[in-house]
Design brief:
Pfam families: DUF1508
CATH topology: Double Stranded RNA Binding Domain
Number of domains: 1
CATH architecture: 2-Layer Sandwich
Radius of gyration: 14 Å
InterPro entries: DUF1508 (IPR010879), UPF0339_domain (IPR051141), YegP-like_sf (IPR036913)
CATH class: Alpha Beta
Number of helices: 1
Oligomer: single chain
Strand content: 25-35%
Protein name: YegP family protein
Helix content: 10-25%
Length: 64
C-alpha cells in the first residue's frame, strides 16, 4: 500500500481529505470545504508545492 489522499464527506456535509501512510494510518486531515472541487484543489496544491517543505519548530523558545 502506498501513501494516499482520501476525499470524503463529513457528517456536516462538507468535503474533507485525509492523508494516509503506507501502513494505512491517517497522518493528517483537512478543514471542511463546501465544494468538492476546493478539497481536490487543496490536495493538488500540497502535491505540487510541498514536496520539499521545511520543518519550522515554533516551540523552541516556548516553556513546556
Amino acid at each position: 500500500m502506498a501513501y494516499k489522499f482520501e476525499v470524503y464527506k463529513d457528517k456536516a456535509g462538507e468535503f474533507r481529505f485525509r492523508f494516509r501512510a503506507s501502513n494505512g494510518e491517517a497522518m493528517f486531515s483537512s478543514e471542511g470545504y463546501k465544494a468538492k472541487a476546493s478539497a481536490l484543489a487543496a490536495v493538488e496544491s500540497i502535491q505540487k508545492n510541498a514536496p520539499g517543505a521545511d520543518l519550522v519548530d515554533m516551540t523552541k523558545d516556548a516553556q513546556g
